[in-house]
Amino acid sequence: MIVELKNIVKRYKNLVALDHLNLSIREGEIYGLLGPNGSGKTTAINCMLSLLRYDSGEVKIFDQTMTPSNYDVKKRIGLVMQNIGVYDELTVQENIDYFCGLYISDKKLRRQYVDEAIQFVELDEFRKFIPKKLSGGLLRRLNLACGIAHKPDLIVLDEPTVAVDPQSRNKILDGIKQLAAEGKTIIYTTHYMEEVEYLCDRLTILDRGKEIITGTTEEIKQMSMTGEVINVEVVDLPLATQQKLHDLSGLINFNYETGSLNLQFEKGHNHLMNLLALFEKDDIQVLNLTIKQPTLNDVFLEITGKELRDNV
Ligand SMILES: Nc1ncnc2c1ncn2[C@@H]1O[C@H](COP(=O)(O)OP(=O)(O)OP(=O)(O)O)[C@@H](O)[C@H]1O
């Protein structure tokens, strides 16, 4: 394992921010920490990297016990914080050079690394800009470049796409995929389930500092009690057919409003086939049909009774 958290407990006075949290992160994977605001993602990162004291538990990174003074481990880690941490008076290039210089003393190598980081986040034409002159998305990309320029083996990103325009967001996400393809291990915190689905090999869903569930996106979705939701647009749906629909096996929810039919089924097979067979028999004309599989949010909702983003 590249990172192991065992039974981490972190309290802020009476609030338990991390409640016996366990994480095992393998080499080369993109690992997601997904949870609503205040679920403990940032606290988990800060405890993991010894930036914050915790009450009990143990953290190992690269098979070594992580401590605030373990610089051998620290220099192999790149951290991209949620809050932008760059110097206002330095240009884009100078900022990246400064952060890279904390780890890389060889000037020639550093110049190469800084250039590569600038290319990586596509900020070449903004090299001489000071941060104040950059848009929010470009600033996030600078923040990313500062965290990864020294070519760390483990990259920790804490909500790097918050308040970012779609273009920069896609660049950041694709950049992260590229880093993983180069063999880096990535830890990625977010409250956007779409990002986790797009990026992560495995994830842990957190709520109130507790691990709710861990697995691949597919494994977690499989845990949902709910099956697919089928939406059908029809020309007309006579009452007699509506009655028969109610009797379809595995149906959990039925909703019909002028031309639009929504059916939610429990897990299982043949729901669509049964539905289409009934439509054919009753000669129902279908204009459009979509099937929605359960999402990570559905699973979160089933377990915790609330939405992933209900307090965003
Ligand atoms: N310095 C602090 N003092 C007291 N409580 C804190 C402190 N930092 C965080 N908390 C609380 O600990 C809990 C976890 O917060 P944390 O910032 O780790 O969550 P998060 O999942 O990263 O949320 P966000 O998405 O908003 O960053 C929250 O209830 C928060 O209010």
UniProtKB/TrEMBL annotation:
TM ranges = none
Can you give the residue ranges of the ABC transporter domain? 3-233
Q: Name one Pfam family in it.
A: DrrA1-3_C
Q: From what superkingdom does this record's organism come?
A: Bacteria
Which UniProt keywords are present, listed alphabetically?
Answer: ATP-binding, Nucleotide-binding, Transport
Q: Which GO terms describe its molecular function?
A: ATP binding; ATP hydrolysis activity
Q: Which InterPro entries match?
A: AAA+_ATPase, ABC_transporter-like_ATP-bd, DrrA1/2-like_C, P-loop_NTPase
Query: PANTHER family, from UniProt?
Result: LINEARMYCIN RESISTANCE ATP-BINDING PROTEIN LNRL (PTHR43582)
Supply the name of the protein: ATP-binding cassette domain-containing protein
* Organism this protein belongs to: Fundicoccus ignavus
